[in-house]
Amino acid sequence: MSVIGWILFGLVVGIIGKLLMPGRDPGGFIVTIALGIAGALLGGFIGRALGLYGEGEPAGFLMALVGSVILLLLYRMVLGRRSI
After folding, report:
1. 43 with 64: CB under 8 angstroms?
2. What pLDDT was estimated at residue 56?
3. Could you tell me how far CA 78 lies from the centroid of its own chain?
4. Between these two residues, 22 and 38, which has the higher pLDDT value?
């Protein structure tokens, strides 16, 4: 149940990250939310690995949100420059 919980948590954080970064994304809404989920998982993992917080602490939400926004920003930078 832990993995499903992280995916649902990442979905919520991904949607919030998309709302914090309005504008057109190269991949659309679904890809943006999927990147938000990946960013939330990555941010949560890195935060716990660095010992910034333990499992279930509110700081995990903030770190997941930061990871999500950073991954969305990187995605826009990489695919935003491509023009076919």
Report:
1. yes
2. 67
3. 16
4. 38
Q: 47 lies in which domain range?
A: 7-78
What whole-number percentage of the chain has pLDDT above 70? 81
pLDDT of residue 19: 80
At residue 83 the predicted structure's pLDDT band, cuts being 50, 70 and 90, is low
Question: Is position 57 within any domain?
Answer: yes
Ordered DSSP codes for 60-83:
HHHHHHHHHHHHHHHHHHHHHS--
First to last CA, the chain: 43
- Domain membership of residue 1 (yes or no) is no
Backbone phi and psi for residue 51, each to the nearest 5 degrees, phi listed first: 80, 20
Does residue 2 sit within a domain?
Answer: no
Q: How many Cα atoms are found within 13 Å in the side-chain-facing hemisphere of 59?
A: 10
